[in-house]
Design goal:
rod-shaped, DNA-binding, transcription, WH_DNA-bd_sf, D-Maltodextrin-Binding Protein, domain 2, LysR_subst-bd, LysR family transcriptional regulator, 12 strands
């Protein structure tokens, strides 16, 4: 039993006519009639009889019709899955990464994702929070990984990946190194390296001011690499997200009283259909175990 025979059978049933079924299937009437006759021979009986000018199903035809219709639908579904699989083997995916989010944790996930889905051609581009949201809206990127601060507009949907505490980063030999954990009051009057791009900066500054803690900035920069370099050079301490620290030469202490943390989110445009590669990425990133 061939799919072509089944398609011709279904076309004759839809139109009630061999000639109109031939027009739909773009085949000659002798070829279509022969295919239906061959199908009847395989199932062991006639599938159509004529009522007036119209061909209708025989009892045998009505009996096997659902199974034959399902066979064609299954073949079409299999073909669609195969085409999607083929596309996914060469599927581009553009990911935006907020500049203040370090690569340590994200890189481990991307490595695992690439091993499982080698056909997804992933491009990672960085940008500020607002830049990435703009690029999501224009379709320039498929997904973005951003901080939960500031709050997302309603036009976007998000999946929480993990929470990230802030720590105090110091060079070797710094006085704060004698502490196991650092309270905000402990940094009062200490030289400070100011991360201008930090989305939590205003909140930390406000809490410090309320607590009467003086932060003396010896250096300011929007670049994370410069912040780490200046701390390592001894210009002062810095508040940094724990998983954003790249330099192994820097020491860190938990920030307590008050603790500060942010959520890291995977974001795209609410209601917009995701590409097969983007769907797969979101499914895997939601199921990923984010080790401490």
């Amino acid at each position: 039993m061939e799919l072509q025979q089944i398609r011709y059978f279904l076309a004759v049933h839809r139109h009630g006519s061999f000639s109109r079924a031939c027009d739909e299937c773009e085949v000659s009437q002798p070829a279509l009639t022969a295919a239906v006759k061959k199908l009847e021979g395989e199932v062991g009986g006639e599938l159509f009889h004529r009522e007036g000018k119209k061909l209708v199903l025989t009892p045998l035809g009505r009996l096997i019709y659902p199974a034959l219709e399902q066979a064609v639908a299954g073949a079409q579904s299999a073909r669609s899955l195969a085409e999607n699989f083929k596309l996914l083997r060469q599927a581009p995916l553009k990911l935006g990464l907020q500049t203040t989010i370090g690569p340590t944790r994200i890189a481990s996930f991307l490595s695992a994702f690439h091993r499982r889905q080698p056909g997804v051609e992933l491009t990672v581009e960085d940008g500020s929070f607002s830049q990435l949201l703009d690029r999501l809206e224009t379709g320039d990127i498929d997904l973005a990984v951003v901080s939960s601060a500031p709050q997302l507009p309603d036009a976007f949907r998000s999946e929480k990946l993990y929470s990230e505490p802030y720590v105090v980063v110091i060079p070797a030999g710094h006085p704060l190194g004698r502490l196991q954990q650092v309270r905000l009051a402990d940094v009062n009057g200490e030289a400070y390296v100011d991360r201008l791009a930090c989305e939590m900066r205003e909140a930390v500054m406000a809490v410090s001011q309320q607590a009467g803690v003086s932060l003396y900035a010896t250096f300011r920069s929007e670049r994370e690499d410069w912040i780490e370099a200046m701390v390592q050079a001894g210009l002062g301490f810095a508040f940094m997200p724990k998983y954003s620290i790249r330099s192994a030469a820097l020491h860190q202490r938990p920030l307590v009283d008050p603790p500060v943390a942010r959520d890291v989110l995977a974001v795209d445009v609410r209601g917009r259909a995701r590409s097969p590669a983007a769907k797969l990425f979101v499914e895997e990133i939601k199921g990923h175990t984010w080790a401490a």
